[in-house]
Design brief:
This protein is α+β, with helices and mostly antiparallel strands. It is built from seven helices and 33 strands. The strands form nine sheets. Strands 22, 24, 25, 26, 27, 29 and 30 form a seven-stranded mixed β-sheet that branches. Strands 11, 13, 15, 16 and 17 form a five-stranded antiparallel β-sheet that branches.
Amino acid sequence: MKSYILFILLLIPLALPAQDVEFKATGPNSVEEGRRFQLIYRVNKAGNNLLLPELDNFNVLMGPTTSQRSQVQIINGKVSREEEYTYTYILKAKALGTFTIPAATIEVDDKKYESNTLEIKVVEAGQEPEQTPGTTNNESGAIGDDDLYITMVANKTRVYQNQPVLLTTKIYTRVNLEGISDIQHPTFRNFIAEDITGEGNIEWSLENINGRTYRVGTYNQKVIYPQTSGQLKIEPVSIEFLVRIRQTRQSNNIFDNFFDTHRTVRRTVTSKGVTLNVNSLPSPQPDNFSGVVGSVDMEVSLTKNQVKVNDGITVKTIISGTGNLKVAGEPKINIPPDFDVFDPNSTSNLSITAGGHKGSKTYEQLIIPRHSGTFEISPVEYVYFDPNLGQYRTLKSQALSIQVESNGQEATTSTEQIRGPGAANRESVKFVGKDIRYIRTGESKLQPVNTFFFGSWKFIMGYLIPLLIFIIVALIYRQKIKENANLSLKRTKQANKVARKRLKKAAHHLKSGNNEAFYEELSKGLWGYISDKLSIPLADLNLENIRQELEANGAQSDNSEKLIEIIDTCEYARYAPAGEASKKEELYQSAIEVISKLESNLKKRKTS
Protein backbone atom coordinates (compact mmCIF):
# COMPACT_ATOMS: atom_id res chain seq x y z
CA MET A 1 0.00 0.00 0.00
CA LYS A 2 2.81 2.44 0.91
CA SER A 3 4.62 1.74 -2.36
CA TYR A 4 1.38 2.45 -4.30
CA ILE A 5 0.95 5.85 -2.62
CA LEU A 6 4.63 6.67 -3.29
CA PHE A 7 4.13 5.75 -6.96
CA ILE A 8 1.11 8.12 -7.21
CA LEU A 9 3.05 10.98 -5.62
CA LEU A 10 5.90 10.48 -8.10
CA LEU A 11 3.45 10.69 -11.02
CA ILE A 12 1.79 13.93 -9.79
CA PRO A 13 4.44 16.32 -11.24
CA LEU A 14 4.06 14.62 -14.65
CA ALA A 15 0.29 15.16 -14.61
CA LEU A 16 0.47 18.84 -13.66
CA PRO A 17 -0.03 21.39 -16.47
CA ALA A 18 2.62 24.01 -17.12
CA GLN A 19 2.14 27.28 -15.22
CA ASP A 20 2.64 30.78 -16.52
CA VAL A 21 5.40 32.58 -14.62
CA GLU A 22 4.17 35.40 -12.38
CA PHE A 23 6.77 37.67 -10.78
CA LYS A 24 5.29 40.34 -8.53
CA ALA A 25 6.64 43.01 -6.15
CA THR A 26 4.67 44.25 -3.12
CA GLY A 27 5.30 46.95 -0.54
CA PRO A 28 3.52 49.67 1.48
CA ASN A 29 1.93 52.67 -0.24
CA SER A 30 3.54 55.07 2.23
CA VAL A 31 6.09 54.95 5.07
CA GLU A 32 7.58 57.33 7.60
CA GLU A 33 11.05 58.73 7.07
CA GLY A 34 13.62 56.57 8.86
CA ARG A 35 11.10 53.74 9.46
CA ARG A 36 11.94 50.21 8.28
CA PHE A 37 9.63 48.43 5.86
CA GLN A 38 9.50 45.23 3.80
CA LEU A 39 9.94 44.94 0.04
CA ILE A 40 8.71 41.47 -1.02
CA TYR A 41 9.13 39.70 -4.37
CA ARG A 42 7.01 36.62 -5.12
CA VAL A 43 7.38 34.18 -8.04
CA ASN A 44 5.30 31.05 -8.67
CA LYS A 45 8.20 28.95 -10.04
CA ALA A 46 11.73 28.33 -8.84
CA GLY A 47 14.16 30.92 -10.18
CA ASN A 48 17.64 32.29 -9.68
CA ASN A 49 19.76 35.39 -10.27
CA LEU A 50 17.30 37.83 -8.66
CA LEU A 51 18.64 41.31 -9.43
CA LEU A 52 17.38 44.34 -7.51
CA PRO A 53 17.03 47.67 -9.35
CA GLU A 54 18.97 50.77 -8.34
CA LEU A 55 17.55 52.00 -5.01
CA ASP A 56 19.09 55.48 -4.76
CA ASN A 57 16.51 56.77 -2.27
CA PHE A 58 16.52 53.73 0.03
CA ASN A 59 19.02 51.82 2.16
CA VAL A 60 18.90 48.01 1.98
CA LEU A 61 19.29 46.92 5.61
CA MET A 62 18.79 43.18 5.18
CA GLY A 63 17.90 40.57 2.58
CA PRO A 64 16.98 38.66 0.78
CA THR A 65 15.25 36.29 3.19
CA THR A 66 13.82 33.42 1.16
CA SER A 67 10.89 31.11 1.84
CA GLN A 68 8.96 28.52 -0.14
CA ARG A 69 5.35 27.34 -0.09
CA SER A 70 3.91 24.41 -2.05
CA GLN A 71 0.40 22.94 -2.18
CA VAL A 72 -1.07 20.04 -4.20
CA GLN A 73 -4.83 19.43 -4.58
CA ILE A 74 -6.70 16.51 -6.19
CA ILE A 75 -10.38 17.35 -6.80
CA ASN A 76 -12.54 14.95 -8.84
CA GLY A 77 -9.42 13.41 -10.36
CA LYS A 78 -8.02 16.79 -11.42
CA VAL A 79 -4.58 17.56 -10.01
CA SER A 80 -3.50 21.14 -9.31
CA ARG A 81 -0.36 22.44 -7.67
CA GLU A 82 0.56 25.87 -6.35
CA GLU A 83 4.10 27.01 -5.62
CA GLU A 84 5.36 30.32 -4.31
CA TYR A 85 8.92 31.48 -3.70
CA THR A 86 9.30 34.63 -1.60
CA TYR A 87 12.27 37.02 -1.38
CA THR A 88 12.04 39.61 1.41
CA TYR A 89 14.22 42.74 1.79
CA ILE A 90 14.23 45.25 4.66
CA LEU A 91 14.58 48.86 3.46
CA LYS A 92 14.70 52.31 5.01
CA ALA A 93 13.96 55.57 3.19
CA LYS A 94 16.66 58.25 3.01
CA ALA A 95 14.55 61.35 2.30
CA LEU A 96 11.01 62.70 2.01
CA GLY A 97 9.07 62.50 -1.25
CA THR A 98 7.38 60.07 -3.62
CA PHE A 99 9.76 57.55 -5.18
CA THR A 100 9.42 54.78 -7.74
CA ILE A 101 11.11 51.41 -7.25
CA PRO A 102 11.90 50.09 -10.77
CA ALA A 103 11.27 46.53 -11.85
CA ALA A 104 13.51 43.73 -10.58
CA THR A 105 14.55 40.77 -12.76
CA ILE A 106 14.76 37.03 -12.17
CA GLU A 107 15.65 34.02 -14.34
CA VAL A 108 13.17 31.12 -14.53
CA ASP A 109 13.84 28.19 -16.90
CA ASP A 110 16.61 30.19 -18.62
CA LYS A 111 14.21 33.06 -19.35
CA LYS A 112 14.39 36.49 -17.78
CA TYR A 113 11.24 38.01 -16.22
CA GLU A 114 10.55 41.49 -14.85
CA SER A 115 8.40 42.43 -11.87
CA ASN A 116 6.02 45.36 -11.64
CA THR A 117 7.19 48.78 -10.40
CA LEU A 118 6.18 50.24 -7.04
CA GLU A 119 5.48 53.82 -5.98
CA ILE A 120 6.14 54.61 -2.30
CA LYS A 121 5.43 57.90 -0.57
CA VAL A 122 7.81 58.83 2.28
CA VAL A 123 6.26 61.19 4.83
CA GLU A 124 7.81 63.07 7.72
CA ALA A 125 7.98 61.12 10.96
CA GLY A 126 5.75 62.30 13.80
CA GLN A 127 6.83 63.37 17.26
CA GLU A 128 5.15 60.52 19.12
CA PRO A 129 6.97 57.51 20.66
CA GLU A 130 7.65 54.45 18.48
CA GLN A 131 4.42 52.53 17.86
CA THR A 132 2.17 51.39 15.04
CA PRO A 133 2.18 54.14 12.38
CA GLY A 134 -0.91 56.31 12.47
CA THR A 135 -2.16 55.09 15.89
CA THR A 136 -1.83 56.48 19.37
CA ASN A 137 -2.21 55.06 22.85
CA ASN A 138 -4.96 56.57 24.96
CA GLU A 139 -5.11 55.61 28.59
CA SER A 140 -7.62 58.23 29.72
CA GLY A 141 -10.26 57.29 27.18
CA ALA A 142 -10.51 60.85 25.85
CA ILE A 143 -10.14 61.22 22.09
CA GLY A 144 -9.14 64.68 20.94
CA ASP A 145 -10.45 66.44 17.85
CA ASP A 146 -6.97 66.15 16.32
CA ASP A 147 -6.86 62.37 16.85
CA LEU A 148 -9.83 61.55 14.62
CA TYR A 149 -11.57 63.74 12.06
CA ILE A 150 -13.10 63.60 8.58
CA THR A 151 -13.09 65.97 5.60
CA MET A 152 -15.48 66.41 2.68
CA VAL A 153 -13.91 68.29 -0.24
CA ALA A 154 -15.13 69.15 -3.76
CA ASN A 155 -12.60 69.22 -6.60
CA LYS A 156 -14.13 72.50 -7.82
CA THR A 157 -16.42 75.03 -6.15
CA ARG A 158 -17.39 77.26 -9.10
CA VAL A 159 -19.19 75.30 -11.79
CA TYR A 160 -22.00 75.42 -14.32
CA GLN A 161 -25.37 73.76 -13.99
CA ASN A 162 -25.17 69.99 -14.72
CA GLN A 163 -21.34 70.10 -14.67
CA PRO A 164 -19.88 67.05 -12.84
CA VAL A 165 -18.24 67.74 -9.45
CA LEU A 166 -16.14 65.17 -7.56
CA LEU A 167 -16.92 65.05 -3.82
CA THR A 168 -14.38 63.14 -1.70
CA THR A 169 -14.80 62.12 1.96
CA LYS A 170 -11.59 61.16 3.81
CA ILE A 171 -10.89 59.82 7.30
CA TYR A 172 -7.84 61.02 9.28
CA THR A 173 -7.06 58.91 12.36
CA ARG A 174 -4.39 58.40 14.96
CA VAL A 175 -6.46 55.95 17.00
CA ASN A 176 -7.38 52.30 16.52
CA LEU A 177 -10.66 52.04 14.59
CA GLU A 178 -12.75 48.88 14.94
CA GLY A 179 -15.43 49.94 12.50
CA ILE A 180 -18.29 52.32 11.75
CA SER A 181 -21.64 51.97 13.52
CA ASP A 182 -23.63 54.76 11.88
CA ILE A 183 -23.33 57.41 9.17
CA GLN A 184 -25.48 60.38 8.24
CA HIS A 185 -25.11 61.28 4.55
CA PRO A 186 -25.99 64.67 3.10
CA THR A 187 -29.43 64.81 1.47
CA PHE A 188 -28.04 66.26 -1.81
CA ARG A 189 -31.04 68.44 -2.49
CA ASN A 190 -30.81 70.08 -5.93
CA PHE A 191 -28.19 67.50 -6.98
CA ILE A 192 -28.02 64.18 -8.77
CA ALA A 193 -25.39 62.06 -6.96
CA GLU A 194 -23.66 58.83 -8.02
CA ASP A 195 -21.05 56.82 -6.14
CA ILE A 196 -17.64 56.19 -7.70
CA THR A 197 -16.31 54.15 -4.79
CA GLY A 198 -18.21 52.18 -2.22
CA GLU A 199 -17.94 52.37 1.55
CA GLY A 200 -16.45 48.92 2.16
CA ASN A 201 -12.75 48.44 1.54
CA ILE A 202 -10.72 51.53 2.49
CA GLU A 203 -7.11 51.80 1.32
CA TRP A 204 -5.04 53.50 4.00
CA SER A 205 -1.87 55.55 3.58
CA LEU A 206 0.31 57.66 5.88
CA GLU A 207 0.46 61.44 5.81
CA ASN A 208 2.34 63.88 8.01
CA ILE A 209 0.17 66.86 8.98
CA ASN A 210 1.63 69.58 11.23
CA GLY A 211 4.29 67.20 12.52
CA ARG A 212 1.84 64.39 13.36
CA THR A 213 1.48 61.14 11.40
CA TYR A 214 -2.06 60.11 10.40
CA ARG A 215 -3.53 57.08 8.72
CA VAL A 216 -5.60 58.51 5.89
CA GLY A 217 -8.27 56.61 3.99
CA THR A 218 -10.74 57.65 1.32
CA TYR A 219 -14.14 56.64 2.69
CA ASN A 220 -16.29 57.63 -0.27
CA GLN A 221 -16.20 59.47 -3.60
CA LYS A 222 -19.30 60.76 -5.34
CA VAL A 223 -19.92 62.62 -8.58
CA ILE A 224 -22.68 65.19 -8.17
CA TYR A 225 -24.50 67.18 -10.84
CA PRO A 226 -26.06 70.50 -9.66
CA GLN A 227 -29.56 70.85 -11.07
CA THR A 228 -30.18 74.52 -10.20
CA SER A 229 -28.07 77.66 -10.25
CA GLY A 230 -27.03 79.85 -7.34
CA GLN A 231 -25.13 79.20 -4.12
CA LEU A 232 -25.86 75.58 -3.23
CA LYS A 233 -24.86 74.15 0.15
CA ILE A 234 -24.11 70.49 0.85
CA GLU A 235 -24.72 69.42 4.44
CA PRO A 236 -21.84 67.92 6.45
CA VAL A 237 -21.36 64.16 6.64
CA SER A 238 -21.43 62.64 10.13
CA ILE A 239 -19.86 59.26 11.01
CA GLU A 240 -20.04 57.37 14.31
CA PHE A 241 -16.83 55.34 14.77
CA LEU A 242 -16.11 52.41 17.06
CA VAL A 243 -12.73 53.23 18.65
CA ARG A 244 -10.67 50.68 20.58
CA ILE A 245 -8.69 52.30 23.39
CA ARG A 246 -6.20 50.78 25.80
CA GLN A 247 -6.37 51.31 29.54
CA THR A 248 -3.56 50.33 31.88
CA ARG A 249 -4.56 48.79 35.19
CA GLN A 250 -3.53 50.74 38.27
CA SER A 251 -3.03 48.25 41.09
CA ASN A 252 -0.72 47.63 44.02
CA ASN A 253 -0.22 44.12 42.71
CA ILE A 254 3.01 44.10 40.71
CA PHE A 255 1.67 41.46 38.29
CA ASP A 256 -1.41 43.52 37.31
CA ASN A 257 0.80 46.24 35.85
CA PHE A 258 1.99 43.84 33.16
CA PHE A 259 -1.51 43.49 31.69
CA ASP A 260 -3.56 46.01 29.70
CA THR A 261 -7.30 46.09 29.18
CA HIS A 262 -9.11 47.38 26.14
CA ARG A 263 -12.59 48.72 25.60
CA THR A 264 -14.54 50.09 22.67
CA VAL A 265 -16.06 53.56 22.74
CA ARG A 266 -18.27 55.39 20.25
CA ARG A 267 -17.05 58.63 18.74
CA THR A 268 -19.19 60.75 16.38
CA VAL A 269 -17.24 63.01 14.01
CA THR A 270 -18.76 65.59 11.66
CA SER A 271 -17.10 67.19 8.66
CA LYS A 272 -17.54 70.73 7.42
CA GLY A 273 -20.15 71.45 4.77
CA VAL A 274 -19.36 72.34 1.16
CA THR A 275 -20.69 75.36 -0.73
CA LEU A 276 -20.80 75.42 -4.54
CA ASN A 277 -21.32 78.53 -6.67
CA VAL A 278 -23.33 77.25 -9.64
CA ASN A 279 -23.74 79.39 -12.75
CA SER A 280 -26.70 78.84 -15.04
CA LEU A 281 -26.04 77.98 -18.68
CA PRO A 282 -25.79 81.05 -20.93
CA SER A 283 -29.01 82.34 -22.52
CA PRO A 284 -30.46 81.99 -25.02
CA GLN A 285 -29.90 78.28 -25.41
CA PRO A 286 -29.71 76.92 -28.98
CA ASP A 287 -32.92 75.27 -30.17
CA ASN A 288 -31.10 72.00 -30.87
CA PHE A 289 -29.14 71.93 -27.55
CA SER A 290 -28.62 68.27 -26.54
CA GLY A 291 -28.41 68.91 -22.79
CA VAL A 292 -24.82 67.61 -22.56
CA VAL A 293 -22.40 69.56 -20.34
CA GLY A 294 -18.86 68.30 -20.84
CA SER A 295 -16.57 67.42 -23.71
CA VAL A 296 -17.90 65.14 -26.46
CA ASP A 297 -17.27 64.05 -30.05
CA MET A 298 -19.60 62.67 -32.73
CA GLU A 299 -19.31 60.12 -35.53
CA VAL A 300 -22.08 59.52 -38.12
CA SER A 301 -21.93 56.66 -40.63
CA LEU A 302 -24.05 54.41 -42.86
CA THR A 303 -23.95 50.62 -42.93
CA LYS A 304 -23.96 50.89 -46.74
CA ASN A 305 -24.42 53.66 -49.29
CA GLN A 306 -25.33 51.59 -52.37
CA VAL A 307 -28.61 49.67 -52.07
CA LYS A 308 -31.67 48.65 -54.01
CA VAL A 309 -35.22 49.80 -53.46
CA ASN A 310 -36.78 48.38 -50.25
CA ASP A 311 -33.37 47.38 -48.80
CA GLY A 312 -32.73 48.57 -45.26
CA ILE A 313 -29.97 51.03 -44.28
CA THR A 314 -28.86 51.86 -40.72
CA VAL A 315 -27.74 55.37 -39.87
CA LYS A 316 -25.34 54.99 -36.92
CA THR A 317 -24.46 57.96 -34.68
CA ILE A 318 -21.92 57.63 -31.84
CA ILE A 319 -21.69 60.34 -29.17
CA SER A 320 -18.54 59.81 -27.05
CA GLY A 321 -16.69 61.80 -24.41
CA THR A 322 -17.00 62.81 -20.74
CA GLY A 323 -19.74 64.69 -18.90
CA ASN A 324 -23.39 64.13 -18.06
CA LEU A 325 -23.77 61.72 -20.98
CA LYS A 326 -26.65 59.84 -19.34
CA VAL A 327 -28.99 62.70 -20.27
CA ALA A 328 -27.57 63.17 -23.77
CA GLY A 329 -30.38 63.71 -26.27
CA GLU A 330 -30.50 61.92 -29.60
CA PRO A 331 -29.23 63.75 -32.69
CA LYS A 332 -31.72 65.10 -35.21
CA ILE A 333 -31.18 63.66 -38.70
CA ASN A 334 -32.99 65.05 -41.75
CA ILE A 335 -33.94 62.01 -43.83
CA PRO A 336 -35.25 62.58 -47.40
CA PRO A 337 -39.04 62.04 -47.75
CA ASP A 338 -38.48 59.10 -50.15
CA PHE A 339 -37.47 56.88 -47.21
CA ASP A 340 -39.51 55.10 -44.58
CA VAL A 341 -37.99 56.12 -41.22
CA PHE A 342 -38.16 54.09 -38.00
CA ASP A 343 -37.52 55.23 -34.42
CA PRO A 344 -33.86 54.97 -33.39
CA ASN A 345 -32.54 52.42 -30.91
CA SER A 346 -29.97 53.59 -28.38
CA THR A 347 -27.30 51.70 -26.42
CA SER A 348 -24.94 53.05 -23.77
CA ASN A 349 -21.42 52.06 -22.77
CA LEU A 350 -20.74 54.43 -19.89
CA SER A 351 -18.69 54.27 -16.70
CA ILE A 352 -18.64 56.75 -13.83
CA THR A 353 -15.34 58.63 -13.37
CA ALA A 354 -14.13 61.70 -11.51
CA GLY A 355 -15.06 63.79 -14.55
CA GLY A 356 -18.57 62.36 -14.84
CA HIS A 357 -19.83 59.65 -17.16
CA LYS A 358 -17.19 58.52 -19.63
CA GLY A 359 -17.83 56.38 -22.68
CA SER A 360 -20.27 56.49 -25.56
CA LYS A 361 -23.95 56.41 -26.52
CA THR A 362 -24.86 54.86 -29.86
CA TYR A 363 -28.03 55.63 -31.83
CA GLU A 364 -29.03 53.32 -34.72
CA GLN A 365 -31.90 54.35 -37.00
CA LEU A 366 -33.31 52.14 -39.76
CA ILE A 367 -34.35 53.77 -43.04
CA ILE A 368 -35.79 52.06 -46.15
CA PRO A 369 -35.71 53.67 -49.63
CA ARG A 370 -38.90 53.36 -51.66
CA HIS A 371 -37.65 54.85 -54.94
CA SER A 372 -34.50 54.72 -56.99
CA GLY A 373 -32.13 57.64 -57.41
CA THR A 374 -29.30 59.48 -55.68
CA PHE A 375 -30.13 60.93 -52.25
CA GLU A 376 -28.20 63.00 -49.76
CA ILE A 377 -28.54 63.23 -45.96
CA SER A 378 -27.57 66.74 -44.92
CA PRO A 379 -24.80 67.17 -42.28
CA VAL A 380 -25.89 66.22 -38.74
CA GLU A 381 -25.41 68.90 -36.06
CA TYR A 382 -25.02 68.21 -32.34
CA VAL A 383 -24.84 71.08 -29.83
CA TYR A 384 -23.33 70.71 -26.34
CA PHE A 385 -21.97 73.06 -23.67
CA ASP A 386 -18.23 73.08 -22.90
CA PRO A 387 -17.72 74.27 -19.28
CA ASN A 388 -13.98 74.79 -19.82
CA LEU A 389 -14.69 77.38 -22.52
CA GLY A 390 -17.98 78.58 -21.02
CA GLN A 391 -19.80 78.42 -24.37
CA TYR A 392 -21.93 76.21 -26.59
CA ARG A 393 -20.17 74.21 -29.26
CA THR A 394 -21.60 72.56 -32.37
CA LEU A 395 -20.36 69.28 -33.82
CA LYS A 396 -21.05 68.85 -37.53
CA SER A 397 -20.69 65.69 -39.58
CA GLN A 398 -20.11 65.28 -43.30
CA ALA A 399 -23.04 64.95 -45.72
CA LEU A 400 -23.94 61.32 -46.49
CA SER A 401 -24.75 60.18 -50.04
CA ILE A 402 -26.93 57.14 -50.84
CA GLN A 403 -27.25 55.54 -54.31
CA VAL A 404 -30.52 53.57 -54.67
CA GLU A 405 -30.92 51.23 -57.65
CA SER A 406 -34.24 50.07 -59.04
CA ASN A 407 -35.23 46.43 -58.51
CA GLY A 408 -38.43 46.45 -60.59
CA GLN A 409 -40.65 46.52 -57.49
CA GLU A 410 -41.36 50.25 -57.40
CA ALA A 411 -45.03 51.12 -57.17
CA THR A 412 -46.68 52.27 -60.43
CA THR A 413 -48.79 55.39 -60.68
CA SER A 414 -51.68 56.47 -62.86
CA THR A 415 -50.63 60.11 -62.91
CA GLU A 416 -47.55 61.90 -64.08
CA GLN A 417 -44.53 61.33 -61.86
CA ILE A 418 -42.97 64.34 -60.12
CA ARG A 419 -39.24 64.75 -60.50
CA GLY A 420 -37.84 65.56 -57.03
CA PRO A 421 -34.46 66.55 -55.62
CA GLY A 422 -31.51 64.35 -56.46
CA ALA A 423 -33.32 62.87 -59.47
CA ALA A 424 -35.69 60.97 -57.18
CA ASN A 425 -39.05 59.77 -58.43
CA ARG A 426 -41.99 60.54 -56.14
CA GLU A 427 -45.54 59.43 -56.79
CA SER A 428 -48.39 61.90 -56.51
CA VAL A 429 -51.14 59.26 -56.21
CA LYS A 430 -50.80 55.58 -55.39
CA PHE A 431 -53.13 52.68 -56.18
CA VAL A 432 -55.89 54.67 -57.83
CA GLY A 433 -59.12 52.65 -57.75
CA LYS A 434 -58.23 50.86 -54.53
CA ASP A 435 -58.31 53.67 -52.01
CA ILE A 436 -61.94 54.82 -52.84
CA ARG A 437 -64.75 52.46 -51.94
CA TYR A 438 -68.22 52.18 -53.49
CA ILE A 439 -71.24 53.67 -51.74
CA ARG A 440 -73.09 51.01 -49.80
CA THR A 441 -76.16 49.84 -51.75
CA GLY A 442 -77.76 47.49 -49.22
CA GLU A 443 -80.77 48.18 -46.98
CA SER A 444 -80.29 50.82 -44.27
CA LYS A 445 -81.65 50.49 -40.75
CA LEU A 446 -83.28 53.74 -39.61
CA GLN A 447 -84.17 54.64 -36.03
CA PRO A 448 -87.06 56.79 -34.78
CA VAL A 449 -86.49 60.40 -33.78
CA ASN A 450 -85.09 61.14 -30.26
CA THR A 451 -83.64 57.65 -29.88
CA PHE A 452 -80.04 58.76 -30.33
CA PHE A 453 -77.63 58.60 -27.37
CA PHE A 454 -76.75 62.28 -27.81
CA GLY A 455 -79.06 64.36 -25.58
CA SER A 456 -80.37 61.37 -23.61
CA TRP A 457 -80.26 61.08 -19.79
CA LYS A 458 -77.38 58.60 -20.05
CA PHE A 459 -75.45 61.18 -22.03
CA ILE A 460 -76.09 63.87 -19.35
CA MET A 461 -75.15 61.53 -16.47
CA GLY A 462 -71.94 60.69 -18.31
CA TYR A 463 -70.93 64.31 -17.81
CA LEU A 464 -72.34 64.90 -14.31
CA ILE A 465 -70.81 61.85 -12.57
CA PRO A 466 -67.17 62.59 -13.60
CA LEU A 467 -67.74 66.25 -12.63
CA LEU A 468 -68.94 65.27 -9.13
CA ILE A 469 -66.01 62.87 -8.70
CA PHE A 470 -63.59 65.61 -9.74
CA ILE A 471 -65.08 68.08 -7.19
CA ILE A 472 -64.86 65.52 -4.35
CA VAL A 473 -61.24 64.60 -5.18
CA ALA A 474 -60.31 68.29 -5.43
CA LEU A 475 -61.78 69.02 -1.96
CA ILE A 476 -59.98 66.06 -0.39
CA TYR A 477 -56.71 67.04 -2.07
CA ARG A 478 -57.06 70.64 -0.88
CA GLN A 479 -57.63 69.46 2.69
CA LYS A 480 -54.51 67.26 2.49
CA ILE A 481 -52.44 70.21 1.26
CA LYS A 482 -53.58 72.30 4.27
CA GLU A 483 -52.71 69.50 6.69
CA ASN A 484 -49.25 68.93 5.14
CA ALA A 485 -48.54 72.66 5.21
CA ASN A 486 -49.01 72.67 8.99
CA LEU A 487 -45.74 70.93 9.97
CA SER A 488 -46.47 71.21 13.67
CA LEU A 489 -49.86 69.51 13.29
CA LYS A 490 -48.32 66.84 11.06
CA ARG A 491 -45.60 66.03 13.61
CA THR A 492 -48.20 65.89 16.38
CA LYS A 493 -50.40 63.44 14.47
CA GLN A 494 -47.50 61.18 13.59
CA ALA A 495 -45.84 61.29 17.03
CA ASN A 496 -47.38 58.01 18.20
CA LYS A 497 -46.55 56.24 14.93
CA VAL A 498 -42.91 57.41 14.98
CA ALA A 499 -42.52 56.49 18.66
CA ARG A 500 -43.78 52.95 18.06
CA LYS A 501 -41.27 52.49 15.23
CA ARG A 502 -38.47 53.45 17.61
CA LEU A 503 -39.81 51.12 20.28
CA LYS A 504 -39.77 48.26 17.73
CA LYS A 505 -36.04 48.87 17.32
CA ALA A 506 -35.67 48.71 21.11
CA ALA A 507 -37.57 45.40 21.13
CA HIS A 508 -35.18 44.03 18.50
CA HIS A 509 -32.18 44.96 20.66
CA LEU A 510 -33.93 43.42 23.68
CA LYS A 511 -34.27 40.08 21.90
CA SER A 512 -30.67 40.15 20.66
CA GLY A 513 -29.35 40.90 24.18
CA ASN A 514 -27.78 44.27 23.26
CA ASN A 515 -28.55 46.03 26.57
CA GLU A 516 -26.89 49.37 25.85
CA ALA A 517 -28.60 49.72 22.46
CA PHE A 518 -31.96 48.71 24.02
CA TYR A 519 -31.86 51.41 26.71
CA GLU A 520 -30.56 54.00 24.27
CA GLU A 521 -33.28 53.32 21.67
CA LEU A 522 -36.01 53.23 24.35
CA SER A 523 -34.86 56.58 25.72
CA LYS A 524 -34.69 58.11 22.22
CA GLY A 525 -38.21 56.90 21.50
CA LEU A 526 -39.66 58.59 24.60
CA TRP A 527 -37.76 61.86 24.10
CA GLY A 528 -38.75 61.92 20.43
CA TYR A 529 -42.42 61.26 21.23
CA ILE A 530 -42.62 64.22 23.63
CA SER A 531 -40.77 66.47 21.16
CA ASP A 532 -43.10 65.57 18.28
CA LYS A 533 -46.33 65.54 20.31
CA LEU A 534 -45.75 68.91 21.97
CA SER A 535 -43.88 70.48 18.99
CA ILE A 536 -40.90 71.33 21.20
CA PRO A 537 -37.32 70.93 19.85
CA LEU A 538 -35.24 68.25 21.59
CA ALA A 539 -32.64 70.85 22.55
CA ASP A 540 -35.27 72.71 24.64
CA LEU A 541 -36.49 69.61 26.53
CA ASN A 542 -35.44 68.51 30.00
CA LEU A 543 -37.05 66.48 32.76
CA GLU A 544 -38.46 69.57 34.49
CA ASN A 545 -40.21 71.20 31.58
CA ILE A 546 -41.48 67.81 30.32
CA ARG A 547 -43.57 67.53 33.47
CA GLN A 548 -44.86 71.09 33.11
CA GLU A 549 -45.62 70.85 29.38
CA LEU A 550 -47.40 67.50 29.64
CA GLU A 551 -49.64 68.62 32.50
CA ALA A 552 -50.30 71.92 30.70
CA ASN A 553 -51.54 69.92 27.70
CA GLY A 554 -53.91 67.75 29.72
CA ALA A 555 -51.76 64.79 30.75
CA GLN A 556 -52.40 63.21 34.15
CA SER A 557 -49.67 63.72 36.73
CA ASP A 558 -49.16 59.99 37.36
CA ASN A 559 -48.56 59.40 33.63
CA SER A 560 -46.05 62.25 33.52
CA GLU A 561 -44.22 60.88 36.55
CA LYS A 562 -44.21 57.38 35.07
CA LEU A 563 -42.67 58.69 31.83
CA ILE A 564 -39.93 60.59 33.70
CA GLU A 565 -39.24 57.50 35.83
CA ILE A 566 -38.75 55.33 32.71
CA ILE A 567 -36.38 57.91 31.14
CA ASP A 568 -34.34 58.04 34.39
CA THR A 569 -34.15 54.26 34.48
CA CYS A 570 -32.91 54.11 30.86
CA GLU A 571 -30.25 56.77 31.42
CA TYR A 572 -29.01 55.00 34.57
CA ALA A 573 -29.09 51.52 33.04
CA ARG A 574 -26.93 52.55 30.05
CA TYR A 575 -23.98 53.03 32.39
CA ALA A 576 -24.86 50.42 35.06
CA PRO A 577 -24.66 46.60 34.90
CA ALA A 578 -27.47 44.96 32.98
CA GLY A 579 -30.47 43.72 34.92
CA GLU A 580 -32.66 40.70 34.43
CA ALA A 581 -34.40 40.16 31.11
CA SER A 582 -37.81 40.18 32.82
CA LYS A 583 -37.19 43.66 34.24
CA LYS A 584 -36.19 44.98 30.81
CA GLU A 585 -39.32 43.42 29.32
CA GLU A 586 -41.39 45.05 32.07
CA LEU A 587 -39.74 48.41 31.38
CA TYR A 588 -40.50 48.05 27.66
CA GLN A 589 -44.17 47.26 28.32
CA SER A 590 -44.40 50.21 30.72
CA ALA A 591 -43.10 52.54 28.00
CA ILE A 592 -45.77 51.32 25.54
CA GLU A 593 -48.48 51.66 28.20
CA VAL A 594 -47.52 55.22 29.22
CA ILE A 595 -47.38 56.38 25.58
CA SER A 596 -50.88 54.96 25.01
CA LYS A 597 -52.22 56.74 28.09
CA LEU A 598 -50.56 60.03 27.17
CA GLU A 599 -51.88 59.73 23.61
CA SER A 600 -55.42 59.35 25.00
CA ASN A 601 -55.06 62.29 27.45
CA LEU A 602 -53.47 64.64 24.94
CA LYS A 603 -56.06 63.81 22.24
CA LYS A 604 -58.87 64.70 24.64
CA ARG A 605 -57.13 67.96 25.39
CA LYS A 606 -56.77 68.77 21.66
CA THR A 607 -60.45 68.05 20.95
CA SER A 608 -61.78 69.85 24.05
